[in-house]
Write a structure and sequence with these properties.
With 406 residues, the chain is an alpha/beta fold. It is built from 15 helices and twelve strands. It has a seven-stranded mixed β-sheet, with helices on both faces. A five-stranded mixed β-sheet has the order 8-9-12-11-10. The longest helix has 19 residues.
């Protein structure tokens, strides 16, 4: 018996990305409509009362929900394979909401130490102010996860590959440990993208994205999204979002919808470019020598990446992020940055344009020197988001810049 072709859950990935969640107005538009409105009208006082009581379907206020935003949320659920999703104003708003909506004083959070700088602030500085105990572990060491996760652990948080050192964490193994303790697993899947890695299929409970990155894909708008079970989204996340207000703009949601239409195609080109660029630069004399078992250039798709085998088990490709250490320390890294003619210096990522940043002085500058050293974020480290340009031009630009490193 053939599957019902009218059920979006039976569509293939490309079809979901182009048509998932679409709702047309009475005008029958082909492109998704932008409902730029803060409020909605009711036919009667009784209708308003019923809608506020959730007894009648419909929208009441764009802080609570909006037709364009809802289309984006529904398309993301089809892409991720989740039961439900809620969009937010930014990726950090998504991370904050995913954690805060389910935590209270006395709970414990266990997180991988290698996380984005603002996430480290939320977990390490903000949550403890509200009586939540937090423990940071080396995410690649399962023994540390096992020792830290206990009966009071409410949430386990990880990002993989990590920002900026591209550590790859074993989602399934960490999820199994968390499940035994009754804890939920939240995965920041930004670097892998929903095309290359499916955390929910590996045992995670909640997935967060900065839609600002690959989902938009052209550096235009901020946005975020949280995905999980229907019960979590409806009973815990939605009330938090309604009353704290990090709502996604309908216009930004529309931009994200258009970005999703080409996400699979763009990610494929991103990956192709990143793999070729990483191979071309790996032996360049401007890249620092390996430190122990860690190569001077890190790309999960290369066999010399420390967690390459794991990456290839849980990801379908190596992604578009490359990290490398320039000869000459901070001065050498800065010489590389300042010599670039094509690649832009920017802390953003997932853009169609290739972007490079120096994490120690930008995204992770608030960490102490000791903390950065522990994470492998040296003054010589550069993080490269490989874009959609012709890879031959990228290789030429990075090569000539690396010539000036030492």
């Amino acid at each position: 018996m053939s599957k019902d072709s009218t059920d979006p859950r039976n569509w293939q990935l490309a079809t979901r990305l182009v048509r998932g969640g679409t709702r047309r107005s009475e005008h029958g538009e082909t492109s998704e409509a932008i409902f730029m409105t803060s409020g909605f009208r009711y036919d009667s006082a009784e209708a308003a009362e019923a809608r506020f009581r959730n007894e009648q379907p419909g929208f009441v206020y764009s802080r609570f929900g909006n037709p364009t935003v809802e289309m984006f949320e529904q398309r993301m659920t089809l892409l991720e394979g989740a039961e439900a999703a809620r969009a937010t104003a930014s990726g950090m708003a998504a991370v904050n909401a995913a954690l805060m909506c389910q935590l209270k004083a006395g709970d414990e959070v266990v997180s991988s130490r290698a996380v984005f700088g603002s996430i480290a602030y939320i977990i390490g500085d903000l949550l403890p102010r509200f009586g939540v105990k937090t423990t940071m572990v080396d995410g690649t060491d399962l023994a540390q996860w096992q020792a830290a996760i206990g009966p009071r652990t409410r949430v386990v948080f990880l990002e993989t590959p990590s920002n900026p050192t591209l550590e790859v964490l074993d989602i399934a193994a960490v999820a199994a440990l968390a499940r035994k303790a009754g804890a939920r697993v939240v995965v920041d899947n930004v670097f892998a993208t929903p095309v290359l890695q499916k955390p929910l299929e590996l045992g995670a409970d909640i997935v967060v994205y900065s839609a600002t990155k690959h989902i938009d894909g052209q550096g235009r708008c901020l946005g975020g999204v949280v995905l999980g079970s229907q019960a979590f989204i409806a009973d815990e996340l939605t009330p938090y979002l309604r009353h704290t207000g990090p709502a996604l703009s309908p216009f930004n949601a529309w931009v994200m919808l258009k970005g999703l239409e080409t996400l699979e195609l763009r990610v494929a080109r991103h990956v192709e470019n990143a793999a070729r660029l990483a191979d071309a630069l790996a032996g360049h004399p401007g890249i620092a020598a390996p430190a122990g078992r860690v190569p001077g250039l890190l790309y999960p798709g290369r066999p010399d990446h420390p967690q390459h085998d794991l990456a290839m088990r849980q990801m379908t490709a190596g992604g578009n992020m490359v990290a490398f250490r320039a000869k000459g320390g901070k001065a050498g890294a800065f010489r590389v940055l300042n010599a670039l003619k094509l690649v832009d210096i920017s802390n953003n990522l997932g853009d169609s344009k290739s972007l490079v940043t120096h994490p120690a002085t930008t995204t992770h500058q608030r960490l102490t020197a000791e903390e950065r050293a522990h994470l492998g974020i040296g003054d010589d480290l550069l993080r490269l988001s490989v874009g959609l340009e012709d890879v031959r031009d990228l290789i030429a630009d990075l090569s000539q810049a690396l010539d000036k490193a030492g």
